[in-house]
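Entry 14. Structure prediction run on the chain below.
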Amino acid sequence: MSAAFHAGEQAMQARAGVQAQMAQIGPRVLRDHMPDQHREFFGLLPFVAVGSVDAQGQPWASVLAGASGFMTSPDPTHLRIRARPLPHDPLHDTLHDGAPLGLLGIQPHTRRRNRMNGTARLEDGGFTVEVGQSFGNCPKYIQAREPVWTPEAPAGHLACEGTSLDEASRQMIRAADTFFIATAHPQAMVAGGEARHGVDVSHRGGPPGFVKLEGDLLTVPDFMGNHFFNTLGNIAVHPAAGLLFVDFERGDLLYVAVQARVLWDGAELASYDGALRLLRMRVTHVRRMQGGLPLRWGPVEPSPQLAGLGNWSSR
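Output returned:
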């Protein structure tokens, strides 16, 4: 039986001093199917974050939205999604039969989230994902706000695309308390590969201003987590990532492709209260949509795990 974690994840676990512990935990929590609780959970959601990878190996983080019930699970190894990508979402180009995908089902107002990766099969009106790996995540660092499906929301339009951030994109990043990040193992595009060599999409949360921005260089603190190191492990072996920032007031979407690396020590790390590592990312491509996300969001309730970490908006 192969290890539950790939070499990049194991290297990160070893650096953090938890590899032996995770070698025991991994096979118990990384499943090749969805438990009934997860199957029911996906069916409650009005949106799902999706990670995919393009023909050049660049991961992208995307979002699909629909009325509650737009995702259903006919059996423990399949999730059917009756939705198509939003206009100008990179998923338009990366979604095809056999495409490796990562899914993050997240219910922000209850701080529940579950992860899954697998492969897609296109169908009329959507697609089905066959499970490769399925596992739960803890509620840490999720900013609670309730999403409501809003089909009457006006269509969005492409406002910016290029290799550098424009000022509106910078403002979005500086104000963000949440973003999604997609990463991939370099073997993700190989048909019939191992489930652990797939695409992943994850959530990052922090106080507004937790993403430090210097030109086209982003720095993000990495806090105590579940020690899976899915995101950082992928970056260790394939240093490309895709970020998705959401403007929760206007429905704007910012897709950012980056080259990433992990910093484990240094004076800058010490300046981030509570951070164990830093994620340093250089922008390579930007696509910003003005409006278009058919969701509206309730008021935010900050994550209790972020109390005492300070206000980093001046960075």
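The mean pLDDT is 92.
Filed with the rest of this week's runs.
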